[in-house]
Amino acid sequence: MSNQENRPLTLRDVSEASGVSEMTVSRVLRNRGDVSDTTRARVLACAKELGYVPNKIAGALASSRVNLVAVIIPSLSNLVFPEVMTGISDALDDTGLQPVVGVTGYSREKEEKVLYEMLSWRPSGVIIAGLEHSEASRKMLKSSGIPVVEIMDVDGTPVDSVVGISHRRAGEKMARAIVRAGYQRIGFLGTKMPRDHRARKRFEGFTEALAKGGIEITDQEFYEGGSALLKGREMTQQILERDPELDFLYYSNDMIGAGGLLWLLEQGVDIPGQMGLAGFNGLNLLKGLPRELATMDACRHEIGRRAADIIAARVQDDADPSPVRIALEPTISYGDTLRRP
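Above: the chain's sequence. Below: its structure in C-alpha cell form.
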C-alpha cells in the first residue's frame, strides 16, 4: 500500500467528489445548517463511496491522533476474545497506547457503525477481527491513514497487516489426525457458517482433507444462539439418534464439544474407543472435564500480542509502513477423546 493510498481523506476530497463547498460538506456531516435533501444525499453517498469518516477531535487537536487503539471484535461473551484482549493489553502496557473495544455481534452492518464511530476519534491504530467486511468498512479502513491489523485469520486478502492462523489448515490437520486414528463415520456439529467465516473455513479444510483419505462427512448438525454447553448436549443426542453408527464427532468449538462429551459419558459411551471427539480453540476453562477434550490451540493470546506490537511499532515517527503478515501454527492436543495414531 503506497503512502498516497494511506493519506487520510479530507473534507476537500468529499467536496470535490460531490461538487459542493467544504462548508456544505461539513454541515451535512455534522447534520447542521440548511442543506437540501438532494445535496445532503449526494454528499453522504460520496462520503460513503470514498470511505470518509469525519474527525470528531476539535480545534488544535484536529490534525493529531489520540493514544487509543480501536479493537473491534464480534463478541465479549465468546471465551476466545478475552484472551485476545489480554494479549493486546499486555503488549500495550508500556507504550502509552490504550485499547478501546467495540463489539459487532457478528453483524457487518453493526461493524460499519462501530468502525465509523471509532475512526471518527482518530485512534492511533485499528485491530479488527476477521478478514470479511462490508465494502464500506474496507473503504473506511483503507482510507483511514492509520495502521490496521486484521486478526484471527490469514485465509484471505487483508486491508493492511494481518495476524492469525490458517483455519483451512487447522481443519485439514484435524481431519488427517482423525483419519490416521482409524475413524470412518464422521459427524460435524457447529455454528451456522454464513456468519462464522472462520468455522466455515475450518469445515472446508476438514472436508477436503477427509476426501483425500476417501471419507465423506456422514451427517451434520447446526445451531445458533443459546447456551453452547446445552446446545452441544442436544445436538449430540439428535445426530446420534439419526445415525447411531457414527464413530467420530467433530465440533466447531470446544464449548459445544464439552456439552457433547458430558452427554456421551452419561450414556456410558466408550470414549475414544466407540466414539471419538474433537473441538477447536483449546480453552483452558475445560481442563477440568472428566475427560480432556481433543482440540486445537488457536494461539489467541499470541495473536493479540503480535497485533498490538505491530500497531506500537507503526506509530513511531521513523516506522516502516509496510504491511506485516504473521501466520501462527496451531497445534493439536489429543486429550482423552482422540486415539493417537
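The first strand starts at residue 68 and ends at 73.
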